[in-house]
Write a structure and sequence with these properties.
The complex is a heterodimer of chains A (209) and B (209). Chain A has 209 residues and is of the alpha+beta class. Chain A contains 6 helices and 6 strands. Chain A is 56% helix and 16% strand. In chain A, strands 1, 2, 3, 4, 5 and 6 form a 6-stranded antiparallel sheet that branches. Chain A starts with a helix and ends with a helix. Helix content of chain B is 51%, strand content 17%. Chain B has 209 residues and is an alpha+beta fold. Chain B folds into 2 domains: 86 residues, no CATH class; 74 residues, no CATH class. Chain B is elongated, with a radius of gyration of 24 Å. Classes of the chains: A alpha+beta (209), B alpha+beta (209).
Chain lengths: 209, 209
């Protein structure tokens, strides 16, 4: 029993310390999200841009959809030194353009391929720490599941976000165990659990019932 | 008689316990639903295909002149519904009023013909998994549309509770640093876990720009 306590205490400590910066990122971004403070405007005409010539977009890319199109575009973006998660691709057929938004936590880039002129215009905008944390908070998320995770960044972050959630669940359970075993703050703790449960279930009932 | 320094450390530990126990259910909700949102293909948690939709037609009383929000609230009062108002992207034709009322687990599409004094309400009821999903993201502040202000008191209370959980988690992280630093035998291992955590998290936020 003593050994279980010691192991649990160490795991609670080390897992908590390792995951603490991730918890801070999620906590800080909550405030941004709840108050609509991170609008993340798209790159526009006032942002730095460059045009690259001799960019050949294979015709078959235009026929593809979803993940297949995203995967086919990746070598072209590598050629242009543009890295990040490819978002929803738009094909403006009348203008012979393929518009590809590429996102990093702290940078958005829009690459516009003109497949008739064989050019690519690259417009980029940097974002602050708040927008970056909000972006990470929402990644990978429930939308565009077919396309999401097309960059190593988001695949890695997916693992990190899952690990943070599992670690938080473990830390709460081990925290309860440590609190029970230590017998410290027993009455105050029971009162706070009951108060927290009443607040939580009361709110959920009022919102959803 | 404990010194003021010891009193600070005792209260630091108590705050760590107290916040953890009070926010236990909130933390479980957001950690678990974070996993659900990042794994939209998990079969057991599907809710949209299992939704129940019904449509009802109602006779309504004339609405007094006022802003869209005021008229929507007056109509909701007549229909006996409550929730967060969402506006469609396009304005409805003159003589009509269209909006959506949402709350966790329930979406009501209201379309009123003010000239004919009729309103139809399409009710979309989600299952328990749907309620959990929406609780995670229910802030009442969606895209950058000035008409989308938070307008239901319960949304405001829920948003404030999200803020409180975020602040509570941040305080717990900071108090854990003090508790760890006081454990002399755990300083090196803890420092290694903390530095590794910050390096991993910092890579996503700062390095990958």
């Amino acid at each position: 029993m003593r050994r279980l306590y010691l192991v649990t205490r160490d795991l609670h400590l080390y897992a908590g310390l390792f995951v603490s910066p991730f918890i801070l990122v999620f906590a800080v971004s909550v405030v941004y999200l709840v108050h609509g403070m991170a609008r993340r405007p798209a790159p526009g005409a006032s942002d730095p841009s460059r045009i690259v010539g001799d960019v050949i977009v294979p015709r078959e890319v235009l026929q593809l959809q979803g993940r297949a199109r995203v995967d086919a575009l990746r070598p072209l973006l590598d050629q242009l030194d543009v890295t990040g998660e490819i978002d929803f691709v738009r094909h403006a057929a009348k203008e012979h353009r393929l518009i590809v938004p590429v996102r990093l936590p702290a940078r958005d880039t829009i690459v516009t391929f003109d497949y008739e002129q064989h050019t690519a215009q690259i417009v980029s905008r940097a974002h602050g720490i708040g927008e970056a944390s909000v972006y990470l908070h929402k990644m990978p998320g429930p939308h565009n599941a077919d396309v999401r995770g097309n960059s190593s960044l988001v695949r890695l972050w997916h693992l990190a976000a899952d690990a943070t959630a599992y670690a938080v669940l473990f830390i709460t359970l081990s925290g309860i165990y440590l609190w029970v075993v230590l017998r410290a703050e027993r009455r105050a703790g029971l009162f706070l659990i009951a108060a927290g449960a009443a607040t939580f279930w009361g709110l959920v009932y009022a919102l959803a019932a | 008689m404990p010194s003021p320094r010891d009193t600070v450390f005792v209260w630091n530990r108590r705050i760590h316990y107290y916040l953890g126990l009070y926010f236990l259910f909130f933390t479980w909700l957001f950690a678990f639903t974070g996993l659900l949102l990042n794994h939209p293909r998990w079969e057991f948690a599907q809710f949209w295909p299992n939704r129940v939709q019904t449509v009802a037609d109602h006779a309504i009383q004339p609405l007094a002149a006022g802003s869209d929000v005021e008229r929507a609230r007056a109509l909701m009062l007549q229909l006996g519904i409550s929730g967060e108002i969402q506006w469609p992207a396009q304005s409805p034709p003159p003589g009509s009023l269209a909006f959506q009322v949402t709350r966790p687990g329930l979406v009501l599409d209201v379309k009123a013909n003010l000239d004919e004094r009729r309103a139809s309400v399409q009710r979309t009821q989600l299952n328990g998994w749907g309620v959990l999903h929406v609780l995670h993201t229910f802030t009442g502040v969606p895209a950058a549309d000035p008409r989308h202000a938070r307008d239901w008191i319960m949304t405001t209370i829920w948003a404030l509770s999200m803020d409180a959980v975020a602040v509570g988690l941040a305080v717990m992280v900071l108090s854990s640093y003090i508790m760890w630093y006081r454990l002399r035998t755990k300083r090196i291992g803890g420092l290694a876990a903390l530095v590794l955590g910050y390096l991993a998290c910092g890579m996503f936020l700062w390095v990958l720009r």
